[in-house]
Amino acid sequence: PALDSYWLPIHVMLLFIGDAVFAVAFGAGIMYLLQEKEVKRKRMGAIFKRLPSLDVLDEINYKCLTVGFPLLTLGIITGSIWAEYAWGSYWSWDPKETWSLITWFLYAALLHGRLTVGWRGRKAAILAIIGFCAVLFTFLGVNLLLPGLHSYSSLSG
Q: In this predicted model, what pLDDT tens digit does every residue of 116-143 receive, in sequence order?
């Protein structure tokens, strides 16, 4: 019956789209750091000449954050609503829920820093990369390594 709830596909869709947007921010962050290194060396290889400028990469990172963070937030909220329907509790500190919250706090800190302190460039790129590592662990690592309500498959059999 829990899988019959319309909250489940909404929850999954919001998080998949949010994760995809964060993947773009991750890519922009990686490109930013690589491009910055080449600029500092004053040596732009053929590949780096084709990359967007540092300002454009930083803007992509920021725009992805402003789209991905609300999607992550709504995904967690709809997941909580679905959890109450499925398991009788909005929040149970399941490893997936806990790591989703950790990921949310990482992106909240990045967004807050960008809006209030002016975090840009290298710092924002590094935090976007760290945030996406948390996304990957939440999405893949938790299911494989930690038992919980979201453990539909595991390495332990």
A: 999 999 999 999 999 999 999 998 888 8
Contact status, residue 17 vs residue 100, Cβ threshold 8 Å = no
pTM of the model: 0.86
- The closest alpha carbon to 57, from 43, 42, 37, belongs to 37
Q: What is the CA radius of gyration of the chain?
A: 18
Question: What single-letter DSSP state applies at residue 4?
Answer: G
- Count Cβ atoms below 10 Å from residue 46 Cβ, excluding itself: 6
Q: What distance in Å separates the CA atoms of residue 150 and residue 157, rounded to the nearest whole number?
A: 15
Q: Cα–Cα distances in Å, from 21 out to 16, 58, 65, 151, 153? A: 9, 14, 8, 25, 25
Residues in the chain: 157
